[in-house]
């Protein structure tokens, strides 16, 4: 585990970073609530794009992580289905720090056990799913389609489903790709470089270092069908394996 390799200074910085994150979250919550109530929820995009980075970036800085975003395209496509590689708890901070335009996050149901995440997540229209129950997860996503399309929102999901998976790039679930097809959205792959190496554990204890969010060109889903979906998922996963510097393993490509 990476935690065992931390220096005393990195432990202390991580603790301070965690404290910084929650203090800023607590201080920002009343401001966010007032903005959302007065605007009848219309300022949700401002919260995600402007306020969330102001909470996450200082925490990353205190932990000792130099975080940056590199866009490998003329601009970030929107609306779209953004997908990420998920292998570290640091992903939570780097996702928020990106400030992606008009995005809503599809997150695990358990995050709502934190009352602040529950309150802010519900008020800003985030989507919480029960990953262990695929039928209910799909039903939850389908209910969100109308709102997503009507407001021209983007969504962000992790095809691996959980940070706990075999290999550097775990098997991909079909859900994010079916969602892109149903919404007629392109898929925008985001590859987090460095997160896994800095923190492999289930906490925000991390080594100091550099993390980069690579926003790659959009992938058009026009012409995708249920018959060729697995082939397209395989192609996308191979891209992630290439970026991660690992050899592909098609036997673990797709999960329900």
Automatic annotation (TrEMBL):
Domain Phospholipid/glycerol acyltransferase as annotated: residue spans: 80-195
Matching PANTHER family: 1-ACYL-SN-GLYCEROL-3-PHOSPHATE ACYLTRANSFERASE
Protein name from the UniProt record: 1-acyl-sn-glycerol-3-phosphate acyltransferase
Molecular function terms from GO: 1-acylglycerol-3-phosphate O-acyltransferase activity
Ranges that cross the membrane: 15-40
Pathway where it operates: Lipid metabolism
Keyword Amino-acid biosynthesis carried by entry: no
Gene Ontology BP annotations: phosphatidic acid biosynthetic process
Keywords: Acyltransferase, Membrane, Transferase, Transmembrane, Transmembrane helix
CDD domains cross-referenced by the UniProt entry: LPLAT_AGPAT-like
InterPro entries cross-referenced by the UniProt entry: Plipid/glycerol_acylTrfase (IPR002123)
């Amino acid at each position: 585990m990476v935690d065992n390799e931390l220096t005393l200074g990195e432990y202390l910085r991580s603790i301070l970073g965690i404290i910084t994150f929650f203090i800023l979250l607590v201080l920002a919550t009343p401001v966010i609530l007032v903005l959302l109530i007065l605007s009848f929820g219309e300022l949700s995009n401002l919260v995600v794009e402007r306020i969330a980075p102001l909470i996450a970036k200082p925490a990353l800085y205190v932990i000792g992580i130099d975080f940056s975003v590199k866009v490998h395209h003329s601009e970030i496509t929107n609306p779209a289905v953004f997908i990420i590689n998920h292998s570290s708890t640091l992903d939570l901070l780097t996702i928020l720090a990106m400030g992606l335009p008009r995005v809503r996050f599809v997150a695990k149901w358990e995050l709502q056990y934190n009352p602040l995440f529950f309150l802010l997540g519900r008020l800003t229209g985030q989507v919480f799913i029960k990953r262990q129950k695929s039928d209910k997860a799909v039903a939850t996503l389908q209910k969100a389609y109308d709102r997503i399309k009507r407001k021209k929102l983007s969504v962000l999901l992790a095809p691996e489903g959980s940070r706990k998976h075999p290999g550097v790039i775990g098997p991909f679930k079909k859900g994010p790709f079916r969602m892109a097809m149903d919404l007629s959205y392109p898929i925008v792959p985001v590859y987090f470089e460095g997160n896994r190496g800095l923190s492999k554990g289930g906490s925000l204890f991390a080594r100091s270092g550099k993390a980069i969010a690579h926003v790659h060109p959009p992938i058009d889903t026009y012409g995708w069908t249920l018959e060729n979906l697995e082939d397209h998922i395989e192609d996308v996963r191979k891209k992630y394996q290439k970026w991660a510097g690992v050899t592909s393993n098609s036997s673990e490509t797709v999960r329900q």
